[in-house]
Structures are given as structure tokens and as C-alpha cells.
Specification:
The chain has about 260 residues and is an alpha+beta fold. It has helices at about 1-25, 120-125, 135-140, 155-160, 160-165, 170-175, 180-200, 205-210, 215-230, 240-255; strands at about 30-35, 45-50, 55-60, 65-70, 75-80, 80-90, 95-100.
Length: about 260
């Protein structure tokens, strides 16, 4: 009699375990994880898509994502710098770390062309060229901004209330972590130094001599004329600085009757 009771208890317990397991597989829960590279460094701006439900999110500046999933779901991880990766939810470990492998792309050969011998020839050739559509434009993606500043380096965005609401963990890290604040300060000092160096190189005697063909005292006279009238500084783009230099040189050449 006792043996039958023991066997019956074991069967009931097994059924309860199977039922609980099936319920867990069918229950939606929020999965919080971190996307990192092979060196365990966080990978921000990475798309994480639930292949079963179609729901998706983008990782924040610390590579963290939060997505509703089932245990039977599969995640697709996409980042342009890394290989697309499929990860079953059931195989994600307790640390919630998903590592990506770097993607490598083969580039086509580069060719160098010569567009005349003067700035006028160069400008005519460039303005006459047909607009080439990039792969990103063909996909409908926004064009890259040369002055783009990452969120974690943007002082105003990092300290904004919107950033606190959308990425609270990142907000406290970037505002109160000494390493993060030092990295932001270094980023802006480096960016300012690069702009100064570029402006100084464009306005150097060597570059102005190659533009005008002048040297010695005539070059110094033009540089004095140029710097008294120039409105661009290191904050301007290279195109704007060069364009103003050529404009002033054209006026100076005509005023002083200098042969081109």
C-alpha cells in the first residue's frame, strides 16, 4: 500500500514539473542583456530583433538592451561592424552577455585622377560630376554627418532629462563616473586640436604659396592682406576655408595685376 502511494506521489510531482516547465516556455518575460565584442567591450547602436514576434530594440551606449521574449524565441543581432548573429533565448547564459565577431568587407580598387592644374579646373570638374548614390542612400538610410558627436560625448544630451528617462543606467554612468567624464573632456580637447591643426595647415605659408605661386615678400604681403579680411576660423569646414582663400586671392590678384 505504501509503495503504491509513493509511486502515485512521484507521478503527480513529475506532472507538476512538466506543467511548470511548459508554462515557463509559454510565458513572456523581459530579457535584459549586453552586446559586446570579442574583447568584452560594449557595442552600442546594435539592433536586437525577436525573430518570432518581430519586436526589436537598439542597444544604448553601454550595449544594454531590454526586450520581451519567450524561452522558445530566437534573437537576431545586427551591427554594421560585426557579423549578423542568431542566438536562441534558451542558450543565453546567466551573465546575459552576447558576443559578436568583427565583420570584414572587401574593398574595390581605388583610382586617382588628375583634374587639371588649377583650382578653377578642379571646381569645374567636381561640379560637373554626376551625383553617385551610396549604398546607404539606396537603402534609405540617413547620410553620415561629418560633425557627428556620439551621445556619450554630447554634454547637453548626457545631462538631459530625456536621456535619464530612456537610458537611466547610462545616464548615471556618464554623469557620475570619473572615467566617463575624463573621456568626454579628452574627446572635445582632441576635436578642438584637430580643427586648429587643420586650419593652420590650410593657412600655412607653404599651402598659400602652392595656391598663389608667390614666395618671399610678395607672399607675406598677400598673407597680411588675407588675414586682415578673412572671416573663417577653425570652426569652419575645410571647404569653407579654402573657398574664402581662393576668393580673396582672386580679388588680390586683380587689384595688383598679378598674372595667373
Amino acid at each position: 500500500m505504501l509503495g503504491r502511494v509513493a509511486i502515485l506521489s512521484m507521478l503527480i510531482s513529475g506532472c507538476m514539473v512538466l506543467s511548470a516547465s511548459a508554462q515557463d516556455r509559454d510565458s513572456t518575460f523581459f530579457l535584459t542583456g549586453t552586446i559586446c565584442n570579442e574583447a568584452f567591450e560594449p557595442v552600442p547602436a546594435t539592433h536586437v530583433v525577436n525573430m518570432n514576434s518581430g519586436a526589436g530594440v537598439v542597444t544604448d551606449s553601454l550595449g544594454i538592451f531590454r526586450l520581451p521574449v519567450l524561452m522558445v524565441d530566437t534573437l537576431l543581432i545586427m551591427n554594421i561592424a560585426y557579423q549578423d548573429t542568431l542566438v536562441p533565448v534558451v542558450l543565453i547564459d546567466r551573465k546575459r552577455l552576447i558576443r559578436l565577431k568583427r565583420a570584414y568587407y572587401s574593398l574595390q580598387e581605388a583610382r586617382i585622377f588628375e583634374w587639371g592644374s588649377s583650382y578653377g579646373d578642379f571646381r569645374t570638374a567636381i561640379t560637373g560630376m554626376a551625383s553617385v548614390q551610396t549604398f546607404g542612400e539606396a537603402m534609405g538610410l540617413p547620410r553620415a554627418d561629418p560633425d557627428y558627436v556620439p551621445i556619450e560625448m554630447d554634454e547637453k544630451r548626457v545631462k538631459s532629462a530625456g536621456y535619464l528617462l530612456t537610458s537611466p543606467i547610462s545616464y548615471f554612468y556618464h554623469n557620475f563616473n570619473r572615467k566617463a567624464k575624463s573621456a568626454r573632456s579628452l574627446f572635445w580637447r582632441k576635436k578642438s586640436r584637430e580643427r586648429h591643426d587643420t586650419f593652420d595647415a590650410i593657412c600655412s605659408p607653404e599651402n598659400l604659396s602652392s595656391v598663389t605661386g608667390l614666395s618671399g615678400d610678395p607672399l607675406l604681403a598677400f598673407m597680411t592682406y588675407l588675414f586682415q579680411r578673412m572671416t573663417c576660423d577653425f570652426k569652419c569646414t575645410e571647404f569653407e576655408v579654402n573657398n574664402e582663400i581662393y576668393a580673396h586671392w582672386e580679388v588680390y590678384r586683380q587689384l595688383n595685376k598679378i598674372e595667373q
